[in-house]
Amino acid sequence: MPPEQEKAAPAIAVTGLRRDYGDRTAIADLELELAAGETLVVLGPNGAGKSTLLRVLGTLLRPSAGEVLVLGCSLPREAWKLRGRIGYLGHEPLLYRDLSGRENLRFHARLHGLAGAEAEARIEELLAAVTMERRADERVAELSAGMRQRLAICRCVLHRPELLLLDEPDSNLDAEGRELARGLIGPGSGAARVVVTHDPDRHLPEADQVLELGIEERAVAA
Amino acid sequence: MTSSRAAFAAILGKDLRSELRTLQALPAMALFAVTTFVIFRFGLDRTQLSGSLAAGVLWATLLFAAVLGINRLFVAEREEGGFDAIRLAPVDRSVLFAAKATALVIYLAALELIAVPIFALFFLDSLAALGPLVAVLLLTDIGLAATGTLISSMAVNSRARDLLVPLVLLPLVVPLMIAASGATEPLMAMGGPGYHRFGTWLLVLGLYDLIFTLLGYAVFDFLLED
Predict the structure, then answer these.
(1) What is the pLDDT of residues B88-144, one digit of tens each?
(2) Alpha-carbon Rg of chain A, whole angstroms?
(3) Domain count of the fold of chain B
(4) Interchain proximity A112–B90, CB inside 8 Å
(5) Can you give the residue range of the structural domain that contains B134?
(6) Closest alpha carbon to A152 in A117, A165, B207, B97
(7) pLDDT computed for residue A219 by the predictor
(8) Complex ipTM, two decimals?
(9) CATH superfamily of A3-85+161-221
(10) Which part of chain A is CATH 3.40.50.300?
(11) Does B21 sit within 8 Å of A108, measured CB to CB?
(12) 3-class SS of residue A214
């Protein structure tokens, strides 16, 4: 078998990606490739396009130009094939404020085809992993930002995604929360990860590749 | 793909639970309707209405009360990330349209359960019209929900959504309101309900419902794109 066929398909392969918002270009001519199970850490100043990159990879934004291949699916044409395979943790927790944490997780479980005892067991497992079992029946609006982030992390990994797109995953978390989160979305999760961060000291040691946006838009091996 | 039925039940259940818990839309809609009937009662200085005037008062009030609910239909999805959650899940996006339209039909039915008896108390001398009126209410609610869901999903991303919804929705529901009033008018005729062209108007309402429900299903996927 030729060596190029033996090599596993990359989790992400991006060539010449550009994303515009009207006249403003957020990402220009971006190239990157990330293997399955690897971690890419994305750094850069505010407005460099880090969150835009995550939203493009997560099928939430269409690329303006370039080729984007995520888990073997070409975007935006095959975006529908990707849904349910990505765990996305953005600036917003994607939790309804008037529902409790447990109700939110049940809602997301049903959207992802998990139901009944299987869903309940998964929800309890995740709540225990972030020590939120006792606060899970309170409305999200009544929880602190750190607790919402813990629930958002549970939501992000609820359906066991193959690719994690994490935008400032440690935001609002205390030291204990960061350690607990690491168990679910850290390098040991087994999923390929793209981590946007302003805290390189914490995330660079986990990186297989580093992408610095706004300076040199090319991924380099860590 | 998650089954459409499971996703539909999840979204509808979430919406109804949120509304029951917060009572953000229904009380405002009901209060608006009751207040408007009081204003009509004293403004027209009449204790009895019949025919086209009765139909006009009923439908104008219900329509503007419905706009309050339509304005808020997608606010949680916009402000709390529901759109992103649906777009990330393996769910047919038209399920969101179906669930939201169904939620709106339930809100409108709940509004009418409060508003129509009060209308009858204020303005009708007999309750005989209320039985056949249920069919008109149901068909009009479906049309209003299909059109309202479509317009609300487009307007929610705009800061001027409170202005946009009535501005775009009201011209679109003119045929619906003409048919609803046409069907209601003979039911509230002086001397008891009549059925002149009642069936024809019901048919027009059904046709409107069909067109806008299909249109919603066809275009909703594109409306959720960035």
Answers:
(1) 999 998 999 999 999 999 999 999 999 999 999 999 988 999 999 999 999 999 999
(2) 18
(3) 1
(4) yes
(5) 4-223
(6) A165
(7) 59
(8) 0.89
(9) P-loop containing nucleotide triphosphate hydrolases (3.40.50.300)
(10) 3-85+161-221
(11) no
(12) coil
